[in-house]
Amino acid sequence: MSLGLCNLSIVPVRISNSDKSEMITQLIYGDLFNIIEEKDNWTKIKCEFDNYEGWIDCKQYVKLDKNEIIKRDDQKYSCDLVEFIENTNKELITISIGSNISNIELLNHKYEGKSISGKQTKDSIISTAMLYLHTPYLWGGKTPFGIDCSGFTQMVYKINGYKLLRDAKEQATQGETLSFIEESEPGDLAFFNNDEDEIIHVGIILKNNYIIHASGKVRIDRLDQTGIYNNDINQHTHSLRFIKKII
User: Fold this and answer.
1) Which of 47, 79, 149, 238 is catalytic?
2) 109 catalytic per annotation
3) Active site residue 238
């Protein structure tokens, strides 16, 4: 199976091979993926990080040679909201926080910004999460220009050296379940369900019974045993299902 590498800032991954198709996630600069199928100027891929599958435009990535050495351990990520890489023409290309710069040599690009690698502490989880505050909600989004609830939690944990799956219902299968909010620590994940008991939302717990999550935008709200309480509208907006400790 051939490998591909995202060489652009952001690439939409769609549910089918059409520009009109729903965006279900995004690739960001440096993401590696397996190429499953090529059809009508579209490529079906499986992301290496979380095994998510979808379709991307065949013009929006580079195919890697089988003999090229790929770095998969000790991944390095950009850690400022927006940074730049330089291409072979000495042109600057913007990249967003969490871009993987581990294999930048394969693209003949240069990067001189800040980076982060390895497993970080829970304090770092919180400081990274706060960088996304006020990011607008975008279904399938994974950047500070638009993000969804599980994209937010996945990216925050990814930057800090931990692997979460892509969707909230998948992330809910990871980690250790806690019985009460009082057992949780800042950096743990809270999951929320609908009337059919399906997991539909996730956020990151902060100290003093607050939560940061993507709902309309990345925002901070109160958290109690019932769920998320939005002070702007004075009502609960999400029903708490359980809390998971990942770290």
Assistant:
1) 149
2) no
3) no
For residues 105 and 141, state if they share a domain.
no
Task: Spot the catalytic one: 47, 79, 201, 238.
Answer: 201
pLDDT, tens digit (0-9, with 9 covering 90-100), for 75-107: 999 999 999 999 999 999 999 999 999 999 999
Q: In this structure, are 152 and 112 located in the same domain? A: no
Q: Which range has the worst mean pLDDT, 52-56, 128-132, 182-186?
A: 182-186
What would the two tokens of residue 69 be?
A: 């050495």
- 165-215 pLDDT tens trace: 999 999 999 999 998 888 999 999 999 999 999 999 999 999 999 999 999
Q: Is 47 noted as a catalytic residue in this protein?
A: no
Residue 67 predicted with pLDDT over 90:
no
| Residue range(s) defining the domain that contains residue 36 | 3-117
Candidates 47, 213, 236, 238; catalytic one: 213
DSSP 84-106: EEE-TTS-EEEEETT-B-TTGGG
pLDDT at 113: 95
CA–CA separation, 111 vs 84, rounded Å?
7
Q: CA separation (Å) from 151 to 35, 112, 170, 171?
A: 22, 26, 12, 11
pLDDT tens digits for range 231-243: 899 999 999 999 9
| Biggest distance spanned by C-alpha atoms of the chain | 59
Does 189 lie in the same domain as 232?
Answer: yes
Whole-structure pTM value: 0.96
Four-CA torsion 34, 82, 212, 216, nearest 10 degrees: -80
166 and 198 part of one domain: yes
The domain boundary, picked from 75, 100, 117, lies at: 117
